[in-house]
Design goal:
Elements (H helix, E strand, L loop, with lengths): L25 H4 L6 H35 L3 H20 L7 H4 L2 H6 L5 H9 L6 H5 L8 H9 L12 H26 L8 H6 L12 H30 L13 H17 L1 E2 L4 E2 L3 H8 L1 H20 L4 H4 L6 H22 L6
Antiparallel strand pairs: 1-2
Length: 361
């Protein structure tokens, strides 16, 4: 059982440059096997540092909310809002590894369920129930986590004034932020130490192919899980996060509509998948072997295509005028939103239909 951030030397540098070789290496491809070091570096260089930074930012959010409650003014409110946005970045980059503890132990739902159930939330805020840790833990996922904190901090359309926050709202916000930080820490621990009697998930993914590993009996099944996580996240971006709001021209379907942060969320989702493919997490300056190291050996032209499609997806998202919540109902932005949706969908399809089959079980 390994505790804390683990560091393994991959023995080869991860190349971030884009190959221009468009001819597959048909002779060497058949001899190339999926490298277990990619699985280790996925855990050690991408997942663990991302979760660690998220836990740090979640704690900072809780402290900023404490300061707001202690001394409510526009400055402390702004600081808490900024802390919310800062915590959002590593979390959204982690959504492409939404398997393992974040799913099985319910951390995803507790941290990031949307939309907010405003009707039930109002009942909670109007009640006289004591706000305790146990009370918060028993709340439905739609009554806590990122977006309830966002709703209380930002108000509708990022127009919250500090004098609008009632005493009970501040108390609930403080308890929510504390619980949020607690869950973020558990998520980080679930990969490094293990929680609730379960082994560290780092050990499970990194030992794919070991005879005792019943979750990933082969190295390839571990690799396929990684690709599937990327595909699921990118598919959600194109079909749900963009698609639903765009199809109905309804800004209330935008994920982070209270803070007007949805478009930034979308970019971080794509960047998170890119981190996995390249084997790095730039925010913490970590780098190791990524899927690119394997794909570039098996099919260099496909590796080049994937890297190009990541850049095209990010470029297309950058073409959407901020904020997404306004652009999604603006006819003049329709073409740019459609182009971004298609670019992300193309990337998702390439990973699913071309990359994943190359990691053969």
């Amino acid at each position: 059982m390994l505790v804390g951030l683990l560091s393994f030397t991959s023995g080869c540098n991860n190349s971030l440059s884009e190959s221009t070789n468009s001819t597959p290496r048909s002779q060497s491809a058949s001899k190339t096997t999926f490298n277990q070091q990619i699985l280790r570096d996925f855990a050690d260089k991408v997942v663990i540092p991302t979760n660690h930074l998220f836990a740090v930012k979640a704690k900072e959010l809780s402290l900023a909310v404490d300061a707001l409650v202690k001394n409510p003014n526009q400055k402390t409110l702004q600081n808490a809002q900024n802390a919310w946005v800062a915590a959002r970045s590593p979390w959204e980059q982690s959504e492409c590894f939404g398997f393992g503890p974040v799913k099985t132990l319910g951390y995803d739902g507790s941290l990031d369920t949307w939309p907010v159930n405003e009707t039930d939330l109002k009942k909670v805020l109007d009640s006289q129930d004591p706000i305790t840790r146990e009370y918060i833990e028993k709340r439905q996922d739609t009554e806590k986590g990122f977006h309830v904190i966002e709703y209380l901090l930002f108000g509708e359309g990022k127009n919250r004034q500090v004098n609008q926050l009632k005493k009970r709202e501040l108390a609930y916000l403080q308890a929510l932020a504390e619980d949020f930080s607690r869950v973020a820490s558990l998520l980080a621990d679930s990969w490094t130490k293990g929680v609730e009697g379960k082994p560290a998930y780092r050990e499970i993914i990194a030992t794919s192919g070991n005879s005792s590993n019943t979750i990933y009996p082969t190295i390839q099944t571990g690799g396929q899980e990684i690709v599937a996580g990327m595909v699921d996240s990118l598919s959600e971006v194109s079909n749900s996060k963009i698609g639903k709001a765009f199809a109905k021209k309804d800004s209330k379907l935008a994920e982070s509509r209270f803070s007007l942060n949805t478009l930034t969320d979308l970019k971080h989702n794509v960047e998170g998948a890119q981190n996995v493919y390249l084997g790095h997490f730039l925010a913490e300056k970590t780098a190791g072997m990524g899927l690119t190291n394997y794909i570039s050996e098996v099919n260099p032209s496909l590796d080049y295509k994937v890297k190009q499609e990541f850049q095209l997806a990010l470029k297309a998202l950058n073409q959407i005028p901020q904020p997404f919540e306004k652009s999604v109902v603006d006819p003049q932005s329709a073409n740019t939103i459609k182009a971004a949706q298609e670019a992300v969908n193309n990337l998702s399809d390439t990973l699913d239909k071309e990359v994943k089959p190359l990691i053969k079980s």
